[in-house]
Design a protein that fits this description.
The complex is a heterodimer of chains A (474) and B (138). Chain A has helices at residues 36-41, 44-54, 112-115, 119-129, 144-153, 189-195, 220-225, 243-260, 281-316, 385-390, 405-411, 414-423, 433-438, 447-457; strands spanning 3-6, 9-15, 18-21, 30-32, 63-73, 75-84, 89-90, 102-111, 208-217, 233-240, 276-277, 327-332, 334-342, 349-357, 360-361, 367-370, 378-383, 394-395, 427-430, 460-473. With 474 residues, chain A is of the alpha+beta class. In chain A, the strands form 4 sheets. Chain A has an 8-stranded mixed beta sheet. In chain A, helix 4 (119-129) packs across helix 9 and helix 5 crosses helix 9. Chain B has one domain (4-137): Archease, Possible Chaperone, Chain: A, domain 1 (3-Layer(bab) Sandwich). The mean pLDDT of chain B is 94. The chains are: A alpha+beta (474), B alpha+beta (138). The interface between A and B is large, with 48 and 38 residues.
């Protein structure tokens, strides 16, 4: 069996894209689902942070690192682990600040040749209709009671309002757009105040709205089932989450967990990994707040979808229904959920609490959406049975950064990048050129390398590859 | 004395800053400067709005953390950024006034700060100054 030593960690090769760091008296096994080249691109902090996660109490089995893993705070972005559903611990920091940050894919029956001359007006109109960046508010004014309904009921609550939700949309969203157990009163006043005006907005950072064309169909049969019929078909992709509300929920509960942890024997090496037993009142309250923030994020992406359908309809002079703007799927990549699983390399089965931070659920017959950098493209994949056995039904979520935001801004001029992208046929509208520079393709790993690794590891199977033709960035 | 600087390579996904202050009050004020300067060109902000602030904590690091979290909360809930602060610190009880401007559509935005993390969070007293390390989720 081949071995690799990286930053004092010994990795054993199990298959081409599955590597294992053995269990120690203090740490659980760590699986790294990536080919050697990608592992070598990971920073030392990824392994150190994964080690801290592998020391958490209540783990039922291995900690999984995805091929797009990069250093975060507490747990690396691209981490999955399972806690015992009764005696395990919950770590808000290992779910992440942007609760239910996720991807949504909408198809159309349009083809690139038909749409070529409309990209610019579409992107310009979408930029007005879907606010991006700091300080811009959504198109609706919500009252506190509306917010309560959304937080507790998720996307379903929109069915009685205008045309925000097509009946069939709900079947194409993870958990049908509602995580059960949400409680409005578990969320602080500050979180609600941060979020209430941000519904139907993209936000900033790596969040985007993109018009794409199908560049390559890899699995024709699965693609057809998902409504992707041929190359050059036009798609729309959204990447965003629960905005300030989700961030504040995470901040509030991290502070609370840290304070309450003093009553327990365990102290994590990184304060960002503060955790409490699932049984505690504080952990239960966090789960109710996290579910509420996740529902808020599903609704945010649904309201953005409403705006996208409206803009396409206005610009192209056809109803969104006539343009077949159906939802392909909506999936979270920062979330914690109770799920039934078998522990990898073990016969142990049970109801576990799965932490997915920068990782996507990958169940059989479930679409998986992996967004790349705005220059390179994105993939649609299908979940697998193998993922259930190897990674608690999880896979990667994106490209994974290789360059810090600060360095990217120093090395890349946003205006020049905008010009270069235009020459490549990608029309971009961005809230700021500095923000654009942060998200340049060179700041990320190659998305195709990430997809190759998860395909080789069996965590999900590629269906289609999309290339951007228009992009809105916060 | 340098007020703050950006640590470019330590944090891949986020932004790390090191802030200095001759005393605790100055450390708080310079943290505000770092916060606002990461988001925008601070010189473009006017001193149009004043907001009173009151924070009581059990330790100074907790107070600094809470202070920065307040800036994030006010940015999102009231759409306001601050360019200066008048602060008075008695033990770990802070009272003061934040002075700044609403975020307009013409204000150049470099990046948004969404949270202050505990990751690498540090407040240290050196011989004659204080130093804080802040990692922001952006």
């Amino acid at each position: 069996m081949s071995k690799m030593k990286i930053f004092n960690f010994d990795l054993q090769k199990k298959t081409e894209a599955i590597w294992k760091i053995e269990k120690t008296p203090n740490t659980e096994v760590i699986f790294v689902f990536a080919e050697e080249d990608l592992i070598k691109k990971m920073e030392e902090a990824v392994f150190l942070q994964a080690k801290n996660v592998a020391e958490l109490p209540g783990l039922v089995g291995p900690v999984c690192l995805m091929p797009d893993a990069h250093s975060g705070y507490g747990a690396p972005i691209g981490t999955v682990f399972a806690m015992d559903g009764t005696d395990g611990y919950i770590s808000p920091g290992a779910i992440g600040y942007d609760i239910n940050c996720g991807m949504r894919l909408i198809k159309t029956n349009l083809f690139f040749d038909q749409l070529k001359s409309w990209i610019r007006p579409l992107i310009n109109k979408l930029f007005e209709a879907v606010p991006a960046g700091l300080g811009r508010r959504g198109f609706l004014k919500f009252k506190e009671n509306d917010l309560k309904k959304i937080i507790e009921g998720g996307v379903f609550e929109l069915s009685s309002w205008k045309n925000f939700l097509w009946e069939k949309d709900i079947n194409h969203i993870e958990n049908n757009g509602r995580i059960a157990g949400a409680d409005f009163f578990a969320i602080s006043k500050e979180a609600k105040e941060r979020g209430i005006n941000q519904l139907a907005t993209l936000g900033s950072g790596n969040h985007y709205l993109e018009i794409q064309k199908v560049e390559k169909i890899i699995d024709q049969s699965s693609a057809e089932k998902l409504g992707i019929i041929a190359e050059n078909q036009v798609m729309v992709m959204i990447h965003c989450g629960s905005r300030g509300l989700g961030h504040q929920v995470c901040s509030d509960y991290l502070r609370l967990f840290e304070k309450k942890m003093t009553g327990f024997n365990y102290r994590p090496k990184d304060r960002q990994l503060a955790c409490l037993p699932i049984k505690t009142t504080e952990a239960k309250s966090y789960l109710s707040a996290m579910a509420g923030a996740a529902n808020f994020a599903f609704v945010n992406r649904q309201l953005i979808t409403y705006q996208i359908r409206k803009v396409f309809s206005q610009v192209l002079g056809k109803k969104a229904e006539e343009l077949a703007m159906d939802l392909v799927y909506d999936v979270a990549h920062n979330i914690g959920k109770f799920e039934n699983h078998q522990v990898p390399e073990s016969q142990k089965k049970g109801r576990f609490f799965i932490h997915r931070k920068g990782a996507t659920r990958s169940f059989p017959n479930q679409p998986v959406i992996i967004g790349g950098s705005m220059e390179t493209g994105s993939y649609l994949l299908m979940g697998t049975n193998e993922a259930l056995l190897k990674s608690y039904g999880s896979t990667a979520h994106g490209s994974g950064r290789t360059m810090s935001r600060a360095r990217a801004k120093k090395e890349i001029r946003g205006e020049k990048l905008w010009q270069e992208m235009k020459q490549k046929g990608i029309y971009v509208k961005s809230a700021s050129f500095a923000g654009l520079a942060e998200e340049a393709g060179v700041a990320y790993k190659n998305i195709s390398d990430v997809v190759k690794s998860i395909n080789l590891a069996g965590l999900s199977k590629p269906v289609a590859y999309f290339k951007p033709i228009g992009n809105i960035k916060g | 004395m340098k007020k703050w600087f950006l640590d470019e390579n330590k944090s891949i996904a986020d932004i790390m800053v090191v802030v200095y202050g001759q005393d605790k009050e100055k450390l708080l004020k310079n943290s505000l400067l770092a916060f606002t300067s990461i988001i925008t060109d601070i010189k473009k902000l006017k001193s149009k709005y004043k907001i009173k602030i009151k924070i009581k904590e059990s330790s100074f690091p907790k107070l600094l953390f809470n202070f920065v979290e307040q800036l994030i909360y006010l940015k999102d809930s009231q759409n306001i950024l601050f360019k200066e602060a008048k602060l008075r610190l008695l033990k770990n009880h802070l009272i003061g006034q934040l002075i700044g401007d609403k975020i307009s559509l013409t204000l150049p935005i470099k990046t948004d700060i969404k949270a202050l993390t505990y990751h690498s969070f540090l407040v240290k007293k050196a011989k004659n100054y204080y130093r804080a390390k802040l990692v922001f989720d952006v």
